[in-house]
Design a protein that fits this description.
Layout (H helix, E strand, L loop, with lengths): L4 H10 L4 E6 L6 H14 L3 E4 L9 H11 L4 E3 L13 E7 L5 H18 L2 E9 L7 H6 L9 H13 L4 E5 L10 H8 L6 E4 L5 H10 L3 E4 L1 H5 L3 H24 L1
Parallel strand pairs: 1-2, 1-8, 2-3, 3-4, 4-5, 5-6, 6-7, 7-8
Bound molecules: SN-glycerol-1-phosphate.
The site of SN-glycerol-1-phosphate has 15 residues, from strand 8 and helix 9.
């Protein structure tokens, strides 16, 4: 546990260090694209790579993970769209329970089916309360999950859902507007959820600019996840890391002032 990836996330989050996960959808990249992203992740020191998709139509996940494991210096974490995306080549997996929805398969059913494979895989398992937030258009994840997302102007529903997830033992809460969302998760909702839970908070979906990222981090996201925008322009990873580093250096200065 002490050397686990979760422990690392927890320590950084407790120190209020902002973190960046770059999401790779294996359906949307080729070998060259994965290597380009891996090189930028190493160069600018993004914190994690997430990989997975709501629906994978290619069999590129295994190759993608192999390339990543051979090239990146950061944890590679599966963000699975379904039970077929459990793969031993990664370091860890977000074991998602879709707590914003009322689809029993995504709350517990698929987990029962996947449990023996997960146990054998050797992956570090990170139980994650996964919450879909309304985002201005029907996203793949909302359609595929057959659930209704939490309305974006209802931070109290989001907070109660996150609190329930934490009380049930989820080690992470992930608020997702869905890949390619028109609107990212509103800062007001992130702030509300942050003030009601202690476990690390992941936020993603529709983050396209450094300003979007800063707003989410400032509102209390510990880890932001960016997929589409870095697929379209991999160099965006550099600007995101620069924003993260600027925010973290302010946090460091505040911390030193307080401890002096
Ligand atoms: C989606 O949170 C992720 O599940 C990332 O979304 O692709 O819109 O960055 P984007």
């Amino acid at each position: 546990m002490l050397n686990s990836i979760y422990h690392q996330i927890r320590i950084l989050s407790d120190q209020k260090k902002r973190q960046l996960a770059v999401l790779i959808d294996p359906d949307k990249v080729d070998e060259e694209g994965v290597m380009r992203i891996a090189e930028l992740v190493n160069r600018y020191r993004a914190d994690y790579i997430f990989t997975g998709g709501s629906l994978l139509t290619s069999d590129f996940l295994g190759t993608c993970l192999k390339i990543l494991k051979e090239t990146v210096h950061v944890p590679v974490i599966i963000f699975p769209g379904n039970t077929m995306q459990v793969h031993p080549e990664a370091d860890a997996i977000l074991l998602l329970s879709l707590i914003s929805g009322r689809n029993p398969e995504l709350l517990i059913g698929n987990h029962v089916i996947a449990a023996p494979g997960l146990k054998k895989s050797g992956l570090e398992i990170m139980p994650t309360g996964y919450m879909l937030i309304e985002s201005g258009k029907l996203t793949s994840v909302v359609y595929m999950s057959n659930t209704i997302p939490i309305p974006s102007d209802k931070p109290d529903i989001a907070s109660c859902t996150a609190m329930a997830g934490e009380m049930l033992g989820m080690r992470l809460i992930y608020m997702d507007a869905g890949s390619g969302a028109v609107m990212p998760v509103p800062a007001r909702m992130i702030r509300h959820v942050r003030s009601n839970i202690k476990v690390p908070l992941i936020v993603g979906g529709g983050i396209r600019t450094s300003d979007d990222a800063i707003k989410s981090w400032d509102a209390g996201a510990d880890i932001i996840v960016v997929g589409n925008a870095t697929e379209h322009e991999p160099e965006f990873i550099g600007r995101l890391c620069e924003s993260r580093d600027n925010l973290n250096s302010v946090t460091n200065r505040e911390y030193h002032k307080l401890t002096r």
